[in-house]
């Protein structure tokens, strides 16, 4: 059977956790938008939790409950209006219970499945059972009808990242290889690193350094996306590259290197740009995305994707300012983390819509508009040095670790700036701009929509 990951904002995750610790069984409807993955699996993006009102409970104890239809029918109408799948959520709060479905739960599923699938117009029924263990949320879940899947993971995309696996998931022993990591982070975080699904967009100097660090930390599921072919000048900073790799796709050369480090790693390589829809679809399904591309067009698209799919983006870059005599005047690096309630790259002024548009035009069209004064000139080849790209990659990986472990300040800054030439590091936090997509998204605009990622796409293949 296929599997499904449920992606939640921190607010929705907190609301589910609050339900789980109530002393009596509690019901709710979780509205979620679907995202189709290239492997046939499903990702659900949670958008709203509607609790059963008190007056709709016919009876209620710590081991059972009966709910009248008015307890969930209004939520189904709202789900239909927004194109959401509706998941029936209920808790198992008694001390000796687990979130595994009981015989009675199976009967309830049979009673509700057709109503939920039909009334929402999605053809799908979902169920989620919640429990808790020492205050930590536990769950099992499934989808029936048009979508047949086990909900085996919950990823929480907030200032801190959290990955929960189903109560029925068998957790294997960690290899001794990670002994030093366990001594630093503990068993749980080390195991989570091995379960995360991470995409790196851009596998040059910064992206390749991020990838190698992640693999050595224990990440075992990577997607590498890059349109470029490895050139001779890339050899000075792309990790794992050798002269024999010149002329090969960067992503494939890097993947071969990473497999030599960790043969058990699942690595998918995609040769292409996320400015193309058929390439961009490979990003969907990630838990975390590292943006290591040096073009504004890719950054603009990944920024929008992060919010509409509740997928944190760790975007990074480095700029070397050198004068005409090749004397360095400044070395500046940036790591920006996007998640719900954090300002996007556009609000921060980290990308230029004009440059992004120019980068997605055909060369002939861009040349014509530039000559006529209707388009800005595209930047030329910038200097790049492995010492600095590696430093920024390490800062980016630190953001992933810190948001899993929680060893840093509260509230968590959303951007780190490194002025390497001055030996200075600073952090900042910015709020979303008013009426912008990073401030609020309508429920029907999460996940897959007619305008994929909520964007238009160039007519290129």
Describe the structure.
The chain is of the alpha/beta class and 461 residues long. The protein has helices spanning 10-20, 73-82, 103-120, 179-185, 187-195, 205-217, 250-261, 277-280, 296-308, 353-359, 363-371, 386-405, and strands at 2-9, 27-36, 42-51, 57-60, 65-67, 85-91, 124-133, 136-145, 149-157, 161-165, 198-201, 221-226, 266-271, 288-291, 313-322, 328-338, 415-419, 424-428. It folds into 2 domains: 2-165, 3-Layer(aba) Sandwich (Cytidine Deaminase, domain 2); 176-454, Rossmann fold (3-Layer(aba) Sandwich). The protein is 29% helix and 28% strand. The strands form 3 sheets. Strands 13-12-11-14-15-16-17-18 form an 8-stranded mixed β-sheet, sandwiched between helices. The chain has a 7-stranded mixed beta barrel with strand order 1-3-2-6-7-8-9. Strands 4-5 form a two-stranded antiparallel sheet. Helix 4 packs across helix 5.
Q: What characteristics describe this protein?
A:
single chain, alpha/beta, Rossmann fold, 8-stranded mixed sheet, globular
Average pLDDT for all residues: 93
How much beta, percentage-wise?
A: 25-35%
Shape: globular
Query: At the first level of CATH, what is the class of the largest domain?
Result: Alpha Beta
Largest sheet: 8 strands, mixed
Instruction: Please estimate the helix content.
Output: 25-40%
Number of helices: 12
SSE run? EHEEEEHEHEEEEHHEHEHEHEHEEHHHEE
Contiguous uncertain segments of 5+ residues = none
Q: Provide the spatial order of strands within the biggest beta sheet.
A: 13-12-11-14-15-16-17-18
Q: What is the rounded Rg? A: 24 Å
Supply the CATH superfamily name of the largest domain.
NAD(P)-binding Rossmann-like Domain
CATH fold naming of the largest domain: Rossmann fold
CATH architecture title of the largest domain: 3-Layer(aba) Sandwich
Structural class: alpha/beta
Q: Tell me the domain tally.
A: 2
End-to-end distance: 32 Å
